[in-house]
Amino acid sequence: MDSDRERRRRERTRERRNSSSHESDSERRRRHGHRATDSQGDVLAQRCAHRASRHQSDSEWDSERTPRKQRRGESTPSTQRSRQSAPLSLDAIAKLDKANAKSAGWRGYDYDEQYLKEVRSKEKKLEKERVKGEKERVREERRKESDAVGEEARRRESRQRARRESKKESDAVGEEARRRESRQRARRESKRRSAEGGDEGAKMTVAQRMEAVNGGKRRSHTSAERDERRKAHEERYTASDIAEKERRRQEKALRDKERKRRVVSGPLAEEGGVGDEDDEYQYMMEKRGGAGAPSEYTEEELAQKKKKKKRLLIAIASVLLLLAIIIPVAVVVSKKNGGDGDGGGGSGGSEAASGPSTPSNSNLDGKDPNSVPEEDKGGWLDPWSWWDTEDFNVTYTNKKVGGLPVIGLNDSWDDDVQANEKVPNLKDDFGYGKNPIRGINVGGWLNVEPFITPSYFEKYTVRDNIIDEWTLTEKLGGPSQAKQTLEKHYSSFITRQTWKDIRDAGFDHVRIPFGYWMVETYDGDQYVPHVSWRYLLRGIEYARQNGLRIKLDLHGAPGSQNGWNHSGRQGVIGWLNGTDGEANGNRWLSIHHKLSVFFAQDRYKNIVTMYGLVNEPRMVDLPASTVLSWSQKAITQIRADGISAIIVFGDGFRGLDKWKDSPLQQNKGLLLDVHQYVIFNLDQIQLNHTDKLNFACKAWTQQSERSMDTSTGFGPTMCGEWSQADTDCTKYINNVNMGTRWEGTLDTGNISTSVLEPYCPLRSSACSCASANADPKDYTDAYKKWLYQFAIAQMESFEKGWGWFYWTWKTERATQWSYEKGREAGIMPGKTWEREFSCPDSPSELEDYGKLGLAESY
Fold first, then answer.
1. Dist CA 656 CA 265 (whole Å)
2. Is 721 a catalytic residue?
3. How many domains does the chain fold into?
4. Where is the composition biased (Basic and acidic residues) (predicted)?
5. 801-841 confidence digits (pLDDT tens)
6. Is 246 inside any structural domain?
C-alpha cells in the first residue's frame, strides 16, 4: 500500500516536470493563490469588488441627499453592505482548500466541484443579504419622509388652531364692545327722551328704563353658530380656489404682456388697475415675510403672539368704549356752543361718510301716511320711507314722465336767475362756443368713488376686498340693507349750501355724475335702486335757484364701460363687450330713452343744457366701430325724444386728433369731451415742476386749438375733467389698496400696467408722497405758488376750446382734487375768472421752481 502510494507520488512529480506547461487547475490555484469564481465563471473577487465599488457610489449619492454629513466611524447600511460584499480573505480560502483537498483525496475534479458548490452558496448568501439591506434602506427612507410630512401637518394644524382661537377671542371682544356701545346709545337716547318729555320721561319705571337700555342689545351667537360661520368662511378659500386664482392671474398677465403700452391723455394709465384684486393667500404670505412659505412658529411663539393680540384687543376695546362716552358728550357740547354740523367745508372724513344723525323731515308733520296707497308704501313713491324730505314736495302722486316719477317736485319754478355778471341769465341762451364754460363736477355724490370718500372703504381690510360701490353695497348687506347708509350720503354730502358756495366761487355750470341704477336695476345687481333719483331732481332745483346750468353725466353703464371703480364696478368691461355686451348696450339705450323723455319737459329746457352719452368709454379696448354705431343710435333716439341740449360724447382715450373726419360730425349740437391729467401718464408725471407748467400752458393749448379746427380735429371741444394734482399720491386714486406711480409701488397684478420703479422727476427712492399728502397749511410757499399757477394755466388752455369742468368740488381729505378745499387753502382763485397769473409767450419766462427751492421729490 505504501509502495503504491509512493509510486503514485513519483509519477505525479515526473508528470509535472515533463508537462510544466500543462499544469492542472488545482495546482495552479495552490501555486498562485486561490481566486474564487462564481457560477458564471467570472472571478468572484472582481465581482465582489465591483459590487463594493457600486455600493460605495450609492453611499456617496445617499450622502449628497442627506441633510447632514455621516459622522466618522458610524456604520450605515451602505457601508455594511460594502463589508459583506468584499472578496474572501486568503486564510479563509486556504482553510476551504484544505478541507476540499482532504475530502477529495487530492482528486482535482472532486475538489473543483465541491469548491464550486461552496462558492455558489456563498454568493447566494451575499446576494440575499444585499437585497435585504436594500429593502431595509428603502423602508427607512420612507419612514423618515412620512415622519417629516406628519410633523409638517401637525405644525400646520397647530397654526390654524392658534389662528382660530385668536379670531374667536377677537370676535368675543368685538361683540362685547358692540354690546356696550349699544347700551350706551340706548342710555343716551333714554336721557334725551327724558329731557324732551319732561315729567312724562321722569315717570318711566325702572323696568321701562332697563328695557330701553337693553333694547339695542344684540343676541349673542351660540358657540355652534360661531363655529359654523367660521367654517363657512374658511371653506371660501380652499387650496383649489387659490390655485385657480393664481392660474387666471398668470394667464391674464401673459395676455396683457403682449399689449403695447400706449401713451395717451387722461386716466388711460389706470387700465389694468382693475387687477384681481388682492388675493387672500398672497396677502397672508407677504404679511408673514415670505413668498408662499409657511411660517415656522413654535407653540411657545404662537402662545406669546396670542397673548399680545389679546392684550391689544382689550386695549382697543377700552379705547372704543371711552370714545363712545366722550364723542357724544363733545357733540352735545358743540351743539350747545352753536356748532351746525356739516357745513360745505371742513375735512369731514367720517362726518361726510356718516351724514347727519337725524333726518330733516319736518314737512311731513300734519300729513297723512295713509295717503300713500298700500302698493306704494315703502317704495320710492312713499315720502315716509325717505330719510330726508327737506325741500321736497311730499304730497303723494304716482305721476310719471318717461316712466320716471315726478314726486318731490313743486309745480312752479323760476328761471329768471343769473349765476354771475360774466354769464347770461338762465332764461337766455348761454352762447356756447363764445362764452367759456367754467364748470365744476360734483363727483362722488350720486355714485360713490373711493378716493373722494375713503372713509367708506378704509374701515375694511384687504381681505374684505371692498373696492367700489358694488362691493360696498354687498358688504353692507345688499341693496335693502345699504339703502339708509347711501341715502344719508346723498342727503348730506351735497346740500343746499353747497350750491350757493359753488355759485360764490364763480362757476356757471355743474356736471352731475350718476349711475344707471338711479333709473333701473337688473337681476343680480348689487346697487341701491332709484333712491338717488329724487336727490338728482332736488339738486337741479338748487342749481336753478343759483342760476347754474346742468350737464347730466351718465357715469356708470350696465356692465361697466371701462372696468374702473367710478363706473360702479371694477373689473371687466361688460358694456358692448363680452357675452352680455349687446344686451347691456340696449339697456343703456332704454335708460337714455327714459331720461331724455323726462328732461325734454319745459321745466328743464333752460337748465339742463348739456346731456352726456357715457363717461370715459374705454375705446382702446372696445371696437371703435361698435362704440360709434351705438353712439349714433343714442344721438338719434335722444333727439327724437325731444332733447335740444348740447349732446356730449367722450374721446374714448383715442386722442383728439383721431376724431377728424369722424362720422359723428354730421350731427348738430355735438360736443367732444376730453379729460386731461398729468398724473396717469408716465411721460408727463415725471416732468419737473417748471416743465409741467409749460406743458399745461403750451401743449394743452395746442391740443385745444387743433381739435377746435375742423380741418385738423372734430370741432367743438371741451375738457370735462382736470385737477390740480401733480402726483398720484392721493389715497385710492389708483383703486383701493394699490400703490402709486410716484413712489413706484403701483402693483396692479398685470405686468404691462404695473409701475414698480419711482416716476417722480428724480426717478429714485427719494420720491415721496409725504409732502403731497400733507395738510395744505404745511405746504411751502413755492409749492403753493406752483399749484396756483398750474391751475390757472389749465383754465387758460381749456378756454381755447369751449371751456372746462374741474374734478371735483368736494372730497373728504384730498385737497388737490377739491376746488372747495383748494380755495380755502389759497391755491385756487376765489372767483374762477380772478387770476394773478397768465401763461407767458415764452417758456423761458416761467419761474424756475428748482431755484425757488421746490423739491422735485414731491
1. 9
2. yes
3. 2
4. 1-28, 55-67, 119-155, 166-179, 192-202, 222-257
5. 999 999 999 999 999 999 999 999 999 999 999 999 999 99
6. no
